[in-house]
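Problem 12. The chain below contains 257 residues. Write out its predicted structure in C-alpha coordinate notation.
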Amino acid sequence: MTVDVTLERDGHVATIQFSKPPHNFACPVLLRKIADAVYKVDNDPELRCSVLLSKGRSFCAGADLVGDASLAGHSGMAAIAQLYSQAERLFRRRKPMVAVVQGGAIGAGLGLALTADFRVADPTTRLSANFTRLGFHPGFALTYTLPRLLGEQRASWMMLSSERVKGDAALAWGLVDRLADEGTAAQEALAMAHELAGNAPLALLAVRRTLMDGVADAAVASMRREHAEQAALRATADYAEGVASVFERRPAHFIGA
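Solution.
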Protein backbone atom coordinates (compact mmCIF):
# COMPACT_ATOMS: atom_id res chain seq x y z
CA MET A 1 0.00 0.00 0.00
CA THR A 2 1.51 3.27 -1.17
CA VAL A 3 0.29 6.27 0.84
CA ASP A 4 1.87 9.62 0.08
CA VAL A 5 1.02 13.00 1.60
CA THR A 6 3.00 16.12 0.76
CA LEU A 7 2.87 19.66 2.11
CA GLU A 8 4.01 22.60 -0.01
CA ARG A 9 3.92 26.34 0.70
CA ASP A 10 2.77 29.19 -1.49
CA GLY A 11 3.09 32.33 0.59
CA HIS A 12 0.67 32.04 3.50
CA VAL A 13 -1.14 29.06 1.92
CA ALA A 14 -0.25 25.40 2.37
CA THR A 15 -1.11 22.79 -0.24
CA ILE A 16 -1.69 19.31 1.22
CA GLN A 17 -1.79 16.69 -1.51
CA PHE A 18 -2.48 13.00 -0.89
CA SER A 19 -2.16 9.94 -3.05
CA LYS A 20 -3.14 6.31 -2.50
CA PRO A 21 -3.52 4.78 -5.98
CA PRO A 22 -5.66 3.91 -7.73
CA HIS A 23 -8.74 5.40 -6.02
CA ASN A 24 -7.38 7.17 -2.91
CA PHE A 25 -9.34 4.86 -0.64
CA ALA A 26 -9.55 6.11 2.95
CA CYS A 27 -7.69 4.22 5.67
CA PRO A 28 -6.24 5.09 9.09
CA VAL A 29 -2.72 5.56 7.68
CA LEU A 30 -3.89 8.01 5.01
CA LEU A 31 -6.00 9.99 7.47
CA ARG A 32 -3.17 10.09 10.01
CA LYS A 33 -0.75 11.51 7.44
CA ILE A 34 -3.29 14.13 6.33
CA ALA A 35 -3.99 15.06 9.96
CA ASP A 36 -0.24 15.30 10.66
CA ALA A 37 0.09 17.76 7.76
CA VAL A 38 -2.88 19.78 9.03
CA TYR A 39 -1.26 19.88 12.48
CA LYS A 40 1.89 21.36 10.90
CA VAL A 41 -0.21 24.05 9.21
CA ASP A 42 -1.96 24.88 12.48
CA ASN A 43 1.35 25.27 14.26
CA ASP A 44 3.14 27.34 11.60
CA PRO A 45 2.49 31.08 12.23
CA GLU A 46 3.34 31.87 8.60
CA LEU A 47 0.55 29.66 7.24
CA ARG A 48 -3.02 30.92 7.40
CA CYS A 49 -5.00 28.55 5.19
CA SER A 50 -4.65 25.21 3.41
CA VAL A 51 -5.82 23.53 0.22
CA LEU A 52 -6.53 19.79 0.39
CA LEU A 53 -6.33 17.89 -2.89
CA SER A 54 -5.53 14.45 -4.21
CA LYS A 55 -3.78 12.96 -7.21
CA GLY A 56 -5.78 10.90 -9.66
CA ARG A 57 -9.29 10.78 -11.07
CA SER A 58 -11.06 10.44 -7.71
CA PHE A 59 -10.80 12.72 -4.70
CA CYS A 60 -11.40 9.75 -2.39
CA ALA A 61 -13.59 6.80 -3.37
CA GLY A 62 -14.38 5.90 0.25
CA ALA A 63 -13.07 3.18 2.52
CA ASP A 64 -12.20 -0.05 0.73
CA LEU A 65 -14.40 -2.44 2.71
CA VAL A 66 -13.52 -5.33 0.37
CA GLY A 67 -9.89 -5.01 -0.68
CA ASP A 68 -8.34 -3.51 2.47
CA ALA A 69 -7.68 -6.38 4.88
CA SER A 70 -7.51 -4.05 7.89
CA LEU A 71 -11.04 -2.77 7.18
CA ALA A 72 -12.58 -5.95 5.80
CA GLY A 73 -11.33 -8.45 8.39
CA HIS A 74 -12.41 -9.28 11.95
CA SER A 75 -10.66 -6.17 13.25
CA GLY A 76 -12.42 -3.97 10.72
CA MET A 77 -14.48 -1.99 13.24
CA ALA A 78 -11.34 -1.23 15.26
CA ALA A 79 -9.71 0.10 12.09
CA ILE A 80 -12.77 2.25 11.39
CA ALA A 81 -12.52 3.61 14.94
CA GLN A 82 -8.89 4.55 14.21
CA LEU A 83 -10.05 6.27 11.02
CA TYR A 84 -12.53 8.32 13.04
CA SER A 85 -9.92 9.26 15.65
CA GLN A 86 -7.86 10.79 12.84
CA ALA A 87 -10.99 12.48 11.48
CA GLU A 88 -11.42 14.07 14.91
CA ARG A 89 -8.01 15.72 14.49
CA LEU A 90 -9.22 17.26 11.22
CA PHE A 91 -12.40 18.56 12.84
CA ARG A 92 -10.34 20.14 15.64
CA ARG A 93 -7.99 22.11 13.40
CA ARG A 94 -7.83 25.91 13.82
CA LYS A 95 -7.22 27.20 10.30
CA PRO A 96 -9.53 27.25 7.27
CA MET A 97 -9.23 24.68 4.50
CA VAL A 98 -10.45 24.52 0.90
CA ALA A 99 -10.86 21.05 -0.66
CA VAL A 100 -10.53 20.24 -4.36
CA VAL A 101 -13.14 17.55 -5.02
CA GLN A 102 -12.70 16.00 -8.45
CA GLY A 103 -14.22 12.70 -9.49
CA GLY A 104 -15.68 10.55 -6.74
CA ALA A 105 -16.04 11.65 -3.13
CA ILE A 106 -17.88 8.60 -1.87
CA GLY A 107 -18.70 7.51 1.68
CA ALA A 108 -15.69 8.29 3.84
CA GLY A 109 -14.41 10.39 0.92
CA LEU A 110 -17.47 12.60 1.22
CA GLY A 111 -16.86 12.75 4.97
CA LEU A 112 -13.29 13.86 4.33
CA ALA A 113 -14.43 16.55 1.87
CA LEU A 114 -16.88 17.90 4.45
CA THR A 115 -14.15 18.41 7.04
CA ALA A 116 -12.99 21.31 4.83
CA ASP A 117 -14.52 24.76 5.24
CA PHE A 118 -15.09 25.11 1.49
CA ARG A 119 -15.16 22.81 -1.52
CA VAL A 120 -14.47 23.30 -5.24
CA ALA A 121 -15.95 20.78 -7.69
CA ASP A 122 -15.73 20.28 -11.44
CA PRO A 123 -17.90 18.52 -14.05
CA THR A 124 -16.41 15.13 -13.10
CA THR A 125 -17.42 15.42 -9.44
CA ARG A 126 -19.72 12.80 -7.92
CA LEU A 127 -20.58 12.94 -4.22
CA SER A 128 -22.43 10.15 -2.42
CA ALA A 129 -23.20 8.89 1.06
CA ASN A 130 -23.66 5.39 -0.36
CA PHE A 131 -23.91 3.47 2.91
CA THR A 132 -27.48 2.14 2.61
CA ARG A 133 -26.50 0.62 -0.72
CA LEU A 134 -23.93 -1.38 1.24
CA GLY A 135 -26.35 -2.37 3.99
CA PHE A 136 -24.31 -0.12 6.29
CA HIS A 137 -24.69 3.07 8.34
CA PRO A 138 -23.19 6.48 7.44
CA GLY A 139 -19.99 7.38 9.27
CA PHE A 140 -17.27 10.04 9.40
CA ALA A 141 -19.79 12.34 11.17
CA LEU A 142 -21.91 12.61 8.00
CA THR A 143 -25.10 12.31 10.07
CA TYR A 144 -24.01 15.63 11.62
CA THR A 145 -22.14 17.45 8.85
CA LEU A 146 -24.60 16.80 6.00
CA PRO A 147 -27.72 18.16 7.80
CA ARG A 148 -25.68 21.09 9.10
CA LEU A 149 -24.63 21.95 5.55
CA LEU A 150 -27.71 21.03 3.49
CA GLY A 151 -30.62 21.04 5.94
CA GLU A 152 -32.45 17.95 7.16
CA GLN A 153 -34.44 17.19 4.01
CA ARG A 154 -31.69 17.06 1.41
CA ALA A 155 -29.26 15.42 3.83
CA SER A 156 -31.82 12.74 4.65
CA TRP A 157 -32.34 12.09 0.94
CA MET A 158 -28.61 11.72 0.33
CA MET A 159 -28.14 9.29 3.21
CA LEU A 160 -31.30 7.22 2.72
CA SER A 161 -31.16 7.02 -1.09
CA SER A 162 -27.37 6.70 -1.60
CA GLU A 163 -27.83 8.92 -4.69
CA ARG A 164 -24.72 10.25 -6.41
CA VAL A 165 -24.90 14.04 -6.65
CA LYS A 166 -23.17 15.64 -9.62
CA GLY A 167 -21.15 18.85 -9.43
CA ASP A 168 -23.84 21.20 -10.76
CA ALA A 169 -26.49 19.86 -8.37
CA ALA A 170 -23.96 19.94 -5.52
CA LEU A 171 -23.37 23.63 -6.22
CA ALA A 172 -27.11 24.37 -6.28
CA TRP A 173 -27.58 22.50 -2.99
CA GLY A 174 -24.64 24.21 -1.29
CA LEU A 175 -22.72 20.95 -0.97
CA VAL A 176 -19.83 22.62 -2.83
CA ASP A 177 -19.02 26.33 -3.05
CA ARG A 178 -17.57 26.71 -6.55
CA LEU A 179 -17.86 24.73 -9.79
CA ALA A 180 -14.73 25.08 -11.92
CA ASP A 181 -14.03 23.95 -15.45
CA GLU A 182 -12.51 20.48 -15.66
CA GLY A 183 -8.81 20.62 -14.84
CA THR A 184 -9.00 24.04 -13.15
CA ALA A 185 -10.48 23.20 -9.73
CA ALA A 186 -7.07 23.27 -8.00
CA GLN A 187 -6.39 26.76 -9.37
CA GLU A 188 -9.79 27.96 -8.18
CA ALA A 189 -9.25 26.49 -4.73
CA LEU A 190 -5.81 28.07 -4.48
CA ALA A 191 -7.26 31.46 -5.43
CA MET A 192 -9.91 31.09 -2.72
CA ALA A 193 -7.26 30.12 -0.18
CA HIS A 194 -5.13 33.15 -1.04
CA GLU A 195 -8.18 35.39 -0.70
CA LEU A 196 -8.71 34.01 2.82
CA ALA A 197 -5.02 34.23 3.68
CA GLY A 198 -4.88 37.87 2.62
CA ASN A 199 -6.96 38.84 5.64
CA ALA A 200 -5.74 39.63 9.16
CA PRO A 201 -4.57 36.28 10.59
CA LEU A 202 -5.74 36.83 14.18
CA ALA A 203 -9.17 37.92 12.97
CA LEU A 204 -9.32 34.93 10.62
CA LEU A 205 -8.67 32.54 13.51
CA ALA A 206 -11.08 34.33 15.85
CA VAL A 207 -13.97 34.36 13.39
CA ARG A 208 -13.48 30.71 12.46
CA ARG A 209 -13.28 29.81 16.17
CA THR A 210 -16.65 31.47 16.74
CA LEU A 211 -18.25 29.91 13.66
CA MET A 212 -16.98 26.42 14.50
CA ASP A 213 -17.72 26.53 18.24
CA GLY A 214 -19.00 23.10 19.27
CA VAL A 215 -18.69 21.57 15.80
CA ALA A 216 -15.81 19.23 16.60
CA ASP A 217 -17.48 17.96 19.79
CA ALA A 218 -20.74 17.35 17.93
CA ALA A 219 -18.90 15.57 15.10
CA VAL A 220 -17.10 13.30 17.57
CA ALA A 221 -20.36 12.45 19.34
CA SER A 222 -21.90 11.60 15.96
CA MET A 223 -18.98 9.34 15.02
CA ARG A 224 -19.39 7.42 18.27
CA ARG A 225 -23.06 6.82 17.55
CA GLU A 226 -22.33 5.98 13.91
CA HIS A 227 -19.62 3.50 14.88
CA ALA A 228 -22.00 1.66 17.21
CA GLU A 229 -24.65 1.44 14.48
CA GLN A 230 -22.06 0.28 11.96
CA ALA A 231 -20.86 -2.44 14.32
CA ALA A 232 -24.41 -3.76 14.66
CA LEU A 233 -25.11 -3.72 10.92
CA ARG A 234 -21.76 -5.28 10.06
CA ALA A 235 -22.98 -8.60 11.48
CA THR A 236 -26.02 -8.74 9.17
CA ALA A 237 -26.54 -10.73 5.99
CA ASP A 238 -27.54 -7.54 4.19
CA TYR A 239 -24.14 -5.97 4.86
CA ALA A 240 -22.36 -9.04 3.46
CA GLU A 241 -24.65 -8.91 0.41
CA GLY A 242 -24.20 -5.18 -0.07
CA VAL A 243 -20.41 -5.36 -0.04
CA ALA A 244 -20.41 -8.45 -2.28
CA SER A 245 -22.73 -6.78 -4.79
CA VAL A 246 -20.39 -3.79 -5.12
CA PHE A 247 -17.37 -6.06 -5.52
CA GLU A 248 -19.20 -8.18 -8.11
CA ARG A 249 -20.73 -5.14 -9.87
CA ARG A 250 -24.32 -6.39 -9.64
CA PRO A 251 -27.58 -5.29 -7.99
CA ALA A 252 -27.89 -6.26 -4.34
CA HIS A 253 -30.62 -8.60 -3.09
CA PHE A 254 -31.39 -7.52 0.46
CA ILE A 255 -33.53 -9.61 2.79
CA GLY A 256 -33.75 -7.39 5.88
CA ALA A 257 -31.67 -9.66 8.08
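Discussion. The domain at 4-182 is CATH 3.90.226.10 (2-enoyl-CoA Hydratase; Chain A, domain 1). Students who got a different answer should revisit the alignment rule from Section 12.3.
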